[in-house]
């Protein structure tokens, strides 16, 4: 009886849940395409990769893209000659160069330069950052196109008929009135912007291939102009014909460039951008307007503050008070406990000190990352779990503690962004190939090199942190004073013994060296330290000899800026490579000029 009732209920349920046509009447619909908001998020993700790429990476990718356009010019001219100028058959292979570029991931002005526009519209990247990206890609494309044109001209690639067709294509562009060129280029820009939107809406390569082919086939069929193709044609005409480059730029390439840019930006701005919902900003950067650039930052970029907003940043700006704030950037919370210990030692000597540990997660190059709220929460939760070990260390020192998480493509730059926002007085960080900022040369920390440091910096090269026996080389200067502060804190908290080393050029200077060292030690509250004067004249060898009896060396950045060494990899000088113990490098802001900060004293 019970079984019969259950069967009746299931029959009724099936009847309710099915329409007369047999289609389900309830349940959720699984869409087979992305919504406009989802497409926008994919474009935002691509834009992150674009604007955070190094200048070198962008330029050489654009160089390859510009050279690939040579394929389009070659096939267009050859097919025109072979097909006797048939308007349809001559252009069938025109899109091939663009297919190589887009499917292959090369940089192309109009195609790769449009996604960052969306990032800029959301005030997540500044206008100067956008223009920098445009300029690098355009320069690379033009250089690649010029190389291709030279190869076609002097490599005897074209047949006589194809050469005439190539010259005819270039001459057609110059002969077209400027107003008409601009209008045609605007429509070409609209087509390319549409390709960007549809390509990110596609779920498979075949769909992308079809869209790219048909869209770029429309350019020659509609007698439209693309700026990189136009520049390649112009260079070929200059080399193989009798047209001046300046005339071609002003009467041909310039109007096309302006039209492509206007057409692409208009479509991204007016059509695609505003058809997305207001929720796009929340999912694009998780924190909405709280994470946007200010209007001044948006207009002027790094001249007045930030030029880019990282993907996740849970830190908050703080008021300027009497708190001594120590920032500790951490790449891997499981392995960087010694950095935290050093920061805690320093903080315990200051009653108002607060340690702010920031977990910096660098996203891999070309890594795809969805920008939904759930992923944000998952990343932050996992980061908080990893940072619990850091909290336990800080709690053992009874020091105030804060933490945050930053996810970004350029971790080294985020150290300075967070430092300024948190108004840090001291940054304590580790250095090594296992740190996400160990590849800082791939980023653009120009601001940190051409301006004064925002605060004191300590960088630990950890080989098993042991501060029981400290060696402190000094030649005077603010960096050595900072090193002395670190040594005193270790002496107070750990009972460390301290040896202060001063190197002079010859035995004749030994006595004056002793006098200098005694005065310096007294001024820095190290009168009870062991004072050693080395008269060999070789600072590196002297440090190496003395370090054999010590567990930690604290070196001031007296000869060349610490950050300059970090970025250029010249940080790995002989002392770091030859000593067996841990090394702390200290740098305090000083009055060195821009030239000295870039190239050393």
Produce the secondary structure layout.
Layout: H1 2-16, H2 36-51, H3 55-82, H4 96-104, H5 115-121, H6 127-154, H7 160-175, H8 178-201, H9 205-221, H10 227-240, H11 245-275, H12 280-285, H13 295-300, E1 312-313, E2 324-330, H14 337-347, E3 353-362, H15 373-386, H16 388-396, E4 400-408, H17 411-421, E5 426-430, H18 446-450, E6 456-461, E7 469-473, H19 478-494, E8 497-503, H20 510-523, E9 530-534, H21 539-547, E10 552-556, H22 562-568, H23 574-578, E11 582-587, H24 594-599
Parallel strand pairs: 2-3, 2-5, 3-4, 5-6, 7-8, 7-10, 8-9, 10-11
Antiparallel strand pairs: 1-4, 6-11
Helix pairs in contact: 2-5, 2-8, 3-4, 3-6, 3-7, 3-10, 4-9, 5-11, 6-10, 7-10, 8-9, 8-11, 10-11, 14-16
GO molecular function: formate transmembrane transporter activity
Protein name: Formate/nitrite transporter FocA, FNT family
Domain UspA: 325-461, 469-585
Distance between the termini: 96 Å
pLDDT below 50 for ≥5 consecutive residues: which ranges? 283-289, 367-371, 440-451, 567-572, 593-601
**Which geometry do the CA atoms define?**
elongated
Strand content: 5-15%
Q: What is the highest CATH level, the class of the largest domain?
A: Alpha Beta
Looking at the overall shape, the CATH architecture of the largest domain is: 3-Layer(aba) Sandwich
DSSP E strands, number: 11
The main sheet orders its strands as 1-4-3-2-5-6-11-10-7-8-9
Major pleated sheet:
11 strands, mixed
The class by helix and strand makeup works out as: alpha/beta
Number of helices: 24
User: How much helix is in the residues?
Assistant: 40-55%
- Indicate the multimeric state: single chain
Mean pLDDT across all amino acids: 80
CATH domain fold name of the largest domain: Rossmann fold
- Summed up, the domain count is 2
Rounded to the nearest angstrom, the radius of gyration is 31 Å
